[in-house]
UniProtKB/TrEMBL annotation:
This is Methylisocitrate lyase. Its EC number is 4.1.3.30. PANTHER family: CARBOXYVINYL-CARBOXYPHOSPHONATE PHOSPHORYLMUTASE, CHLOROPLASTIC (PTHR42905:SF5), PHOSPHOENOLPYRUVATE CARBOXYLASE (PTHR42905). Pathway: Organic acid metabolism; propanoate degradation. Homotetramer; dimer of dimers. Gene3D superfamilies: Phosphoenolpyruvate-binding domains. One of its GO terms (biological process) is propionate catabolic process, 2-methylcitrate cycle. It catalyses: (2S,3R)-3-hydroxybutane-1,2,3-tricarboxylate = pyruvate + succinate. PROSITE patterns: ISOCITRATE_LYASE. Keywords: Lyase, Magnesium, Metal-binding. Its cofactor is Mg(2+). The keyword Electron transport does not apply. Involved in the catabolism of short chain fatty acids (SCFA) via the 2-methylcitrate cycle I (propionate degradation route). Catalyzes the thermodynamically favored C-C bond cleavage of (2R,3S)-2-methylisocitrate to yield pyruvate and succinate via an alpha-carboxy-carbanion intermediate. It comes from Devosia riboflavina.
Length: 304
């Protein structure tokens, strides 16, 4: 049904719906959805919540993931993904776009856009993908202040604190930071760029009772693990942040190369979403039926 008049539109805030998915137990699978179409396809595949990656957003804009996009730009992505899918969305909040007041503004803006959760990281600008080298970290105290600001500003938003400290401070440093961030008001912890099963297990064992998020990005430092394997290691959430964008970009690259070489898209037709499939995914017939059901306005005749 169209989101404009759908009988199953969620009435509960996205933050409460996201929290309920975490608290029911098991592991919550959060595939990246870099736009509204991707979110519809993920929902059709049976996923209950989605992830919106900063790297995917910036790459789709033709920009590197260095923390250079704005709150308003991210809010545009949140609106289309949350609106199209109706699912609670975990959003990459990078470093919070500044200090404490900026973080509070981000939290309010993201909630108003429809986000269910956000994660903040303890890097300094210009930040990097968590799986790259030479990341510069904020002090644990400064990051805790941002987490506390986010917790004060939220209405229902689920707050996840990400730490990139394992690469430079080891597990001991990452755990110490994570505990400080939980005391500051975080709901969960995201230990970024762990690179062995042993590291994942050790971190989980030292954060008992704390919901943890794992990042299963491709071409990074983390070996491939399944959602079930992460669950067995003590994790409650797993993201595949840029996978949808990587697949879409590779397909587009092939399309343009074929078109340049052949002067035609005919060879690519078997790999295309058909017109019928596109219309079914976006619910065109439902929108047309809704439009036809609206009674035309009749201007009353003036009374003499």
């Amino acid at each position: 049904m169209p989101y404009l008049l759908s009988s199953d539109l969620p009435t509960e805030p996205a933050g409460l719906r996201f929290r309920a998915l975490i608290e029911r137990g098991g592991i919550l699978r959060l595939p990246g959805a870099h736009n509204g179409m991707a979110s519809l396809q993920a929902r059709a595949a049976g996923f209950e919540a989605l992830y919106l990656s900063g790297a995917a957003m910036t790459a789709s804009m033709g920009l590197p993931d260095l923390g250079i996009i704005t709150v308003d730009e991210v809010s545009f992505f949140i609106k289309q993904v949350a609106r199209a899918s109706g699912l609670p969305v975990l959003v990459d909040g990078d470093t919070g776009y500044g200090e404490a007041l900026n973080v509070m503004h981000m939290v309010r803006a993201f909630e108003e856009a429809g986000a269910g959760a956000v994660h903040l990281e303890d890097q300094l600008l210009p930040k990097k993908c968590g799986h790259l080298n030479d990341k510069k970290l904020a002090t644990a105290h400064d990051m805790a202040a941002k987490v506390n600001a986010a917790a004060k500003a939220r209405r229902n938003l689920y707050i996840i604190a990400r730490t990139d400290a394992a690469a430079s401070e080891g597990i001991d440093g990452a755990v110490a930071r994570a505990k400080m961030y939980m005391e500051a008001g975080a709901d969960a912890i995201f230990p970024e760029a762990l690179n062995t099963a042993e590291m994942f297990r050790e971190f989980a064992s030292r954060m008992p009772g704390v919901p943890l998020l794992a990042n299963m990005t491709e071409f990074g430092k983390t070996p491939f693990f399944t959602a079930s394997e992460f669950e067995d290691m003590g994790y409650r959430m797993v993201i595949w942040p840029v996978s949808s964008l990587r697949v879409a970009n590779k397909a587009q690259e092939k399309l343009y190369a074929t078109l340049a070489a052949d002067g035609s898209t005919k060879a690519m037709v078997p790999e295309m979403q058909t017109r019928a499939e596109l219309y079914a995914t976006i619910g065109l017939a439902d929108y047309e039926a809704l439009d036809a059901s609206i009674v035309a306005t009749i201007v009353p005749e003036p009374i003499n």
